[in-house]
Amino acid sequence: MMAQDGNLTPKQVIGCVLAGGQSRRMGGGDKSLMDLGGKTMLEMVLERLGPQVPEIILNANGDPSRFAHTGLEVVADPVGDYAGPLAGVLAGLTFVRNQRPETTHVVSVAGDTPFFPGTLVEKFCSALPSIDPVIALATSADKLHPVFGLWPVALYEDLKAWLETGQSGKVLAFVDRHDSIEVSFEKDPATGMDPFFNANRPDDLVTVRKALGHPLT
pTM here? Predict the structure, then answer.
């Protein structure tokens, strides 16, 4: 493939916040709606992602009315029963394919990761080597974060068939079928934390609140 820099811009990308999990390690419920000192994790995620893309959709299962205050389109997993992040990616690709045919890519971000980079989409777009379908995944400190990815809508049919035939729901199992690149990110400058620190357990909420300078109660 010949490198063709600059073909993709953030204007061609729709953001998809993955909030469809069951939050077992947090004790259940919607961890993205938990308070972090005046704001929920979801509000923080949307503040980070909002300036980076022209539109955001929310992947979540169950009653969508609990997210009505966001004003976002809520799309459920189209396959399986809480089938993991790949099902959320497919939900985003399905929405874009059916509703936003001019959009070429979906960027997936986790709804429990409030410090992810404000340059995520820009760096993903800049790193793509060509206009061919290439998946970009985020890394930090030599660790891969496959939930944070840039996904070509052109892969919709393959991902749909992959999940509908009961293949592995692990992100990297599907990514390995396609061309992909890894894009490295530094620590969050405001907190000094890994930008992809995610709040899975109650103790993680304490860590986030401390990083934000809020009381621990």
Answer: 0.88
